[in-house]
């Protein structure tokens, strides 16, 4: 007997979460961008900034594996706070042996920023982690995740989190060193 096909990504809602972030959100986490497996940009065409293992094992240990949305800022270049989706888990398609946090910042960067500080505000849950029969189905689902994050973040209570003091002044050079809300 054949297994049923995965649910169509097109059937998923593009508005995620309640009208404003609710507990346990927002979750603030930061750390240095580390080298990952190199699959996001090369295999998927969706580059990711990998959170350090300490952030995944300490600050994010209390939330379930899955895909999340929110805001991210890399303290390199222009320091803009941008929309993001984050995969937190085992990435079953790739059979990872350790839990990882991979942040896709919805922006095209021209340079790598390994070693730079990344600040992430997680505002809501997108979906559970899934295994996929093909790379194409995985990419299709990630594209829907990205669209849902962009639509969901347009709501004012979500939008204003990008101005939280956790982030260094949006789109400006770092002029002061603010203490993050979550120490790693």
Automatic annotation (TrEMBL):
This is Riboflavin kinase. Keywords: Kinase, Transferase. It comes from the Eukaryota. The keyword Kinase applies. It comes from Kickxella alabastrina. Its EC number is 2.7.1.26.
């Amino acid at each position: 007997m054949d297994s049923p096909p995965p649910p169509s990504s097109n059937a998923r809602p593009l508005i995620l979460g309640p009208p404003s972030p609710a507990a346990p959100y927002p979750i603030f986490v930061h750390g240095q961008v580390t080298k990952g497996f190199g699959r996001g940009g090369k295999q998927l065409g969706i580059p990711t900034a990998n959170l350090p293992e300490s952030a995944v094992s300490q600050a994010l240990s209390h939330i379930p594996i899955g895909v999340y949305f929110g805001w991210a800022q890399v303290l390199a270049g222009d320091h803009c706070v941008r929309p993001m989706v984050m995969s937190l888990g085992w990435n079953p398609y790739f059979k990872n042996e350790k839990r990882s946090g991979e942040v896709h910042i919805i922006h095209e960067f021209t340079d790598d920023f390994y070693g730079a500080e990344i600040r992430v505000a997680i505002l809501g849950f997108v979906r559970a982690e899934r295994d996929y029969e093909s790379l194409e189905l995985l990419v299709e689902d990630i594209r829907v995740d990205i669209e849902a994050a962009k639509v969901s973040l347009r709501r004012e209570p979500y939008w204003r989190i990008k101005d939280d003091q956790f982030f260094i002044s949006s789109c400006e050079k770092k002029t002061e060193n603010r203490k993050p809300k979550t120490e790693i």
